[in-house]
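Appendix C reproduces, verbatim, an entry submitted by the partner laboratory led by Prof. M.T., so that reviewers can inspect both the input and the predicted structure.
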Amino acid sequence: MQLLLPASIFLLMVSIGMSLRLPELIRNWRRLTWNEWLRLLLATFLLPAAVALILARAFSLSLPFTAGLFMVGATPGAPMLTRNLARRGFDMHLAASYQVWSGIMTPIMIPVMLWAAAKLYNRDIWIPPRVVLAQIVEKEFLPLLVGVALMYFAPAFSKKTQRGMNVLGNVILTVVFVLLLWKMRSELERVTPLIVLATFLLLVASIGVMHLLLRADHVAVRTLAVSNANRHVGLALLLSGRYMHNRNALPVIACYAILVGLFLVIAPRIFKPRELTAQAAA
């Protein structure tokens, strides 16, 4: 299992790298104004993390569960969007561009946000940015660059294998996830209805803030909203265990992972493209 999880992430990130086109990536970034960048920063990092703390306080969650919920809200950018979303009117290239941007910002934002949140509970927690950067580079940027290089040097091979690689990565990730859930079944018994409700509301908030703050076409907003709901639970679990010395956050993080996995399955049905809806009505 220790090899399967990194392998699945590697395949997914290579697949995302294959879908990146540098001119379009730069165009996606250049068309945003400073005001829009600020809105994106708020919607991606600050507001989900703040909502997590508010929900934890409202539901009187224990400190370990609060820490888990906060780390989920603070860590965006999991590479789990499927090709099915692209076929249902989502912009996969925009999702890949967003993945790169959130990965660049993560080593800057997470240490600062965690330090500030810890102060609210009279604690001193500091994660060196280089540690977060090392995780992002190793697990996201390096395989992303492999995918970009493959598309550049072997475009025919890349076009043939990209979809299969994405499907294989998601299948392996799903298998690993099911095995982990079975292994953690005793921990999951501690999941209460309040934890389920809190994680569900955090997922809804991650979607809602994108719709509330961004002013773009419906496909772009829908794509960014789904991408934002796909929080990086793996990184959240790693950081909460290593730097917050909190292994009791696992039930909350696992609960969010289950909910977001279900959400990615039903998202194409919820966010039906207008053109498909119009065809169905006709």
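The domain at 4-274 is CATH 1.20.1530.20 (Na+/H+ antiporter like fold). Additional entries are available on request from the coordinating office.
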